From TrEMBL:
InterPro entries in the cross-refs: Cytidylate_kin, Cytidylate_kinase_dom, P-loop_NTPase
Catalytic activity annotation: dCMP + ATP = dCDP + ADP; CMP + ATP = CDP + ADP
Enzyme class: transferase
Annotated compartments: Cytoplasm
Cited CDD domains: CMPK (cd02020)
Domain spans labelled Cytidylate kinase: 7-212
This protein's record includes keyword Kinase: yes
UniProt keywords, alphabetically: ATP-binding, Cytoplasm, Kinase, Nucleotide-binding, Transferase
Annotated EC: 2.7.4.25
Protein name per UniProt: Cytidylate kinase
Family statement drawn from the similarity comment of this UniProt entry: Belongs to the cytidylate kinase family. Type 1 subfamily.
Alphabetical list of SUPFAM superfamilies matching this protein: P-loop containing nucleoside triphosphate hydrolases
Gene3D superfamilies in UniProt: P-loop containing nucleotide triphosphate hydrolases
Amino acid sequence: EAPVPVIAIDGPSASGKGTVAERVARELGWHYLDSGALYRLVAVAAARAGLSLDDEGRLAETCAAMTIEFRDGKAWLDGIDASEDLRSEATGIAASKVAAYPRVRTVLLTRQRGFRRLPGLVADGRDMGSVVFPEARLKVFLTAALPVRAERRHKQLMEKGMYAKMPDVVEDLRRRDERDATRPVAPLRHYSDALFLDTSGMTADAAVATILGWWRERSEP
Ligand code: CDP
Ligand code: CDP
């Protein structure tokens, strides 16, 4: 029996991973995993329970106990809609703090692998190709220059009615990327077997077409 194929898309914050990965999945008719949403949900669960972000043990327990569901375009945490809390920059920052804890990452490992189902999975995050799905058939490191990423995130936040100042968005992204890249476990980096794609001057559609082209090259006999 052939293993379920995986395409891994990793990269820094607001590079377009989610947008591009979801469209690639749709084009192929595959499942999609937004692994960042799982880390964000741990942060939301911690906030709901009033937990300190310094308490690795309690955070890992909360993470193991939480029920999550992606349904009707929404994220449900323990049966309550968490979609709005999920996308704020405050949640992104808290997620990157809880994501530095090895015990939290271990608990999420099994959950992430559970998304791998036929006919295939497109997964985006920081360590999809390096840790979670090392056997992925195609690995992409998707990035863009910091000012471009800040522009994209700022636009996204404004469209959701979340007011943010441009200099704050730049600073949040920079600090979060630095924390993600320097942590000892599963750091964000361009690992050697990932194809590099800089989308600074590229539309999301062009990035999707590039990745689909790479996939076709690989999957042809
Ligand atoms: O998942 P990640 O944080 O990497 O990025 P995202 O949430 O997909 O956000 C990227 C934003 O930039 C979205 O609003 C996209 O429409 C836009 N965008 C893109 O994803 N890729 C491009 N090449 C150009 C714009
Ligand atoms: O959308 P954006 O790129 O801003 O963030 P995200 O992908 O939703 O991830 C939020 C945070 O979760 C990141 O800053 C990482 O610290 C963490 N994360 C991770 O450690 N490993 C992953 N595979 C995905 C996210």
